[in-house]
Amino acid sequence: MVFQLIESIGASSIRSVYSVGEALKFTSLCLIHMVNPRSYNPAMRMVLVKQIYFTAVTIIPLFLMMAFLFGSVIIGAVIALATEYSLQESIGSIIITFVVNEFAPFFTALLISLRSGTAVNTEIAVMNVNEELNTLREYKIDLINYLFLPRIISGIISVTSLSILFALIMLSSGYIFTLFYMNMDFHTYKQLLMSAIEVSDIFVLLFKSVAFGFVIMLIPIYSGLKTANSYTAIPISVLNGMVKLFIALFFIEVLSLILQLL
Amino acid sequence: MLENIALIKEVHEHLATLKAQEIARAMLKKISQDHLSLYRVSTCSPTEIFYIQFIRALMMNEDQIMIVTPFSLIDNLRNINVIIENIKILAHKKHILIVDMLSNEIHYKGTACNTVK
Prior knowledge:
The structure holds 2 protein chains of 2 kinds. By secondary structure, chain A is an all-alpha fold.
C-alpha cells in the first residue's frame, strides 16, 4: 500500500518533470527561431500581419469602450478612497501605479487570453486532429516559423500596444471624474500624473506586457499541439490550455509584484 | 487555394507573396483550372483538390513525385486519362511515378504512360 503510494507519487513527479522539460524545450526552440532572421520568410510575414489584425485591430472598439468605462469608474474609486484616507498628496503616484503598472497590462492580458488565446488553442488543436500539421511537415514547412512564431510575435505586439492604449485611455477618462468630483482642471491633472510617472513605471508596463503577450500565445499553441487525435479531445485541450495560461498570467503578475517590492 | 499553393515557394525560396501567387496562378491556368484560385478547400471537388495537391508538390524542389493509388485519392474517378494528360502538361520537367494496385490495372490500359509490374 505504502509502496504503491510512493510509486504513484514518483511516477507523477517524473511525468511532471518530463512535461515541464518538454515545455521549456518548446519555449527555447521558439525563442531561437525568433532571433533567427531566416525565420522571417514572406509567408510568415503575411501570417504575422493577419494575426496582428485579428488580435489587436478588430478588438479596438470594444477595448476603447471598456478602457473608458473602467478608467472613469476605477480612477474615480481610487481618488475617492485616497481622499477618504487623506492621501491627496499621493493621488498621482497611486493612479500611475495602479493603472500603468497593474491594471492596464493585466486587464489587457485577460481580455486577449479570452479572445485570442482560446482561438489559437482551438485552431492548432483542430489542425492537429485534421492532420493539417502533418501535411505541412510533409511539405517541409517549419511549423514554428509558419504557424507559431507569427502568433507569438503578434501576441507580444498586440498586448504591449493595447496595454499602452488602455493605460492612456484610462488615464484620460479618469480626468472626467476628477473634473466633476474634485473640480480639477486638465492642466493640474496632467501635472499630477506627469510628476508621478517614472521610467521604472514604463519599464514595468513594457516588461509585463511582453511577458503576458508571449505566454498568451505560447501556452495555447503548446496545448493545441499536445491534443490527442480525436475531435472530443479539442475542448479538453482548450480547457487545459486556458487553465495553464491563467496560472502563468498570475505567476507573472505575482513575480512582477515581488520584483517591485524588492 | 492560391495562397495554399504559393506558400511552398514563399517558404522554401523566400519568394515574395505576389510573385509566388503569380506562379501558382500560371500553373492552374495551364490546365484551365484558374477559377480554383479563389476557391476554398470545402468548395473544391476531389479532382480539383488532387490538382491543387499535385501543383503544390510541383512547387517543391524534389525531382520525383510519387502519386499513390489515385483512385482512392479521387472519389468516382472513372477515366484517369484526363488526369495523366494534365500531369503531363504540368510536370514535363519532373519524373512522376504513379503507384497503384494490380486490381486497378485495367484503368491504365490505353494511357500514355509506361506501366511497370
